[in-house]
Amino acid sequence: MELTQPAEERHVTERIRTDVAHNARVWNHWLGGKDNYAVDRAVGDQVTGMYPSIGEVARADRAFLGRVVRHLGGELGVRQFLDIGTGLPTVENTHEVAQRIAPETRIVYVDNDPIVLAHARALLTSSPEGATEYIDADAHDPERIIRSVEPTLDLKRPVAVMMLGILNFIMDTNEARSIVRQLMDAVPSGSYLVLTHPTLELGGEGNAAAMRFWNENATPPITARSGEEFTSFLEGLEILEPGIVSCSRWRVDPATGGEAAQVAQFGAVGRKP
Ligand SMILES: C[S@@+](CC[C@H](N)C(=O)[O-])C[C@H]1O[C@@H](n2cnc3c(N)ncnc32)[C@H](O)[C@@H]1O
Question: Highest taxon of the source (predicted)?
């Protein structure tokens, strides 16, 4: 059979490993998506067996993303987003939420998983007034990310740097802090840092055992962090109300009763003074 796939796309699909579970694909499985392989579903279901609230964590994290982008775009006038550790396209991606509020909003997505690159077209559906860009890059190299975001983003104007569920894959806390610092140094006053991160301090039965299982059976390795470590990522920033909370409880819409069950995932937003 003749190969009709363009060389660039072949190169991407060759990078996709189907013999080991990958976080972007397992996360997609937990969110009810179809862009995953048998190995991802097997490991994902094992984790769910050990840590039953993981699906709730994934949904709470996505709902937090929606609330934050609506708040930043709608109430605080942010028109540029840098979403690092994007994950596979799903419903209500950052640009869809942001451009519904302000079509001129510009978004750069960054992930290092080839499956996300293979599906990136779904993230590049910008409104004509705005722009979306996808960068295949590693968070361990923030300098490269900073060099690549222009001209889509103007680094002289405020940017919301979103790092949802990704610093937990930077195993060394000092390195994670340094990555955050380099990114926030590159953006001006009035920019924001948006974080979520798993923790063992907010309940979540089976979380520690599930993380050990993950690190033996999947990639990349993950770590939980304490409230103190999480707070250190936001050093020098003004933390928006309601502070550092379970991401499910960050600015819950009063129309939904204003109540939400806690999940074992910190969420917070900091503003660069
Ligand atoms: C838990 S998912 C979170 C997805 C999305 N941010 C959300 O909150 O729904 C983490 C994402 O980070 C990506 N990731 C992990 N390590 C990374 C790294 N070193 N550089 C870039 N992306 C990374 C994974 O491929 C995955 O898509």
Answer: Bacteria
